[in-house]
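Feature request, filed as a ticket because there's no other form

It would be nice if the structure record came with a short human-readable summary line next to the tokens. Right now we just get the raw output. Example of a typical job, pasted below so the devs can see what we mean:
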Amino acid sequence: MQAVIANPNDVAMRARGRIARRLIPYLLVVFVISYLDRVNLGYANLEMTKDLKFDDQIFGIGAGVFFIGYFLLEIPGTILVETWSAKKWIARIMITWGILASAMGFVHTQTGFYWIRFLLGAAEAGFFPGMIIYLSHWFRNQDRAKVFALFLAAVPISNIIGSPVSGFYSTSTGLAWRDGGGYLLSKGLRQ
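Raw output as currently delivered:
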């Protein structure tokens, strides 16, 4: 019996293809959820402003406060991803993010709205750079541009998926903002 020696290039290409098929769909879904989380507040605004008596200024400040928390902790979060563990840090982000997104369903005051939005931004900080670092650990320099492009395809996909889904949730009985934020609560529980 003669041993068959595989071409090292073929083995490497198959390995990279297998890694891409396993990682990219999962990371794409996670990034779509991340992007939807940022833009869904606009859909929830349709009911929130009426039920909570928030004017456009309160809503605008609350939407912007998210990015203050994100900005303040994005670099430290990215450093933690690189030094600690990308997989564990991304898992921590997703768990904290789901809890805080669910907590948005219980907001009844302007102050609570501001705090939850700030904490949500702080919790999500480092997510995007962490994903890029995670992908860079799995793919060679020659393959990274293609992989990053596939990963960033999540932005238009989230717009295509997000609008109909958010519209459905905001108009369905029992899932809309009415009586304590069921829309955002259900969105947070899905994460």
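Something like this underneath would help us a lot:
The first helix runs from residue 8 to 51.
The chain has a mean pLDDT of 79.
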